[in-house]
C-alpha cells in the first residue's frame, strides 16, 4: 500500500474529504487528464468544481472563509 492510500488515523472529517477528492479525481480528472495535457488546455471546468468543493480554502481558517483543515488533509 502506498503512503497516499493510507488513511488510518485520520479524523472522520479528514476521511470524508479524502474520499470526496478521490472520487472527484476518478470521475472528473483522470478521464480528461491526457486530453487536457495534449491539447495544453486550462481545465476551467475542473477548477470551478474544485472551487465549489472548497479545496482551495481547505487550510484557511474558518473565520476567514475557509474550511480550517490541517496540512495533512491537504496533502
UniProtKB/TrEMBL annotation:
Pfam families according to UniProt: Acyl-CoA_dh_N
Residue ranges of every copy of the Acyl-CoA dehydrogenase/oxidase N-terminal domain listed in the record: 11-75
Molecular function terms, GO-annotated: acyl-CoA dehydrogenase activity; flavin adenine dinucleotide binding
Name this polypeptide is given: Acyl-CoA dehydrogenase
Species for this entry: Rhodococcus opacus M213
Amino acid at each position: 500500500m502506498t503512503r497516499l492510500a493510507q488513511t488510518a488515523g485520520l479524523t472522520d472529517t479528514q476521511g470524508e474529504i479524502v474520499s470526496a477528492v478521490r472520487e472527484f479525481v476518478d470521475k472528473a480528472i483522470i478521464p480528461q487528464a491526457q486530453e487536457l495535457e495534449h491539447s495544453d488546455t486550462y481545465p476551467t471546468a475542473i477548477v470551478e468544481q474544485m472551487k465549489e468543493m472548497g479545496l482551495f480554502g481547505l487550510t484557511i481558517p474558518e473565520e476567514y472563509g475557509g474550511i480550517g483543515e490541517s496540512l495533512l488533509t491537504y496533502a
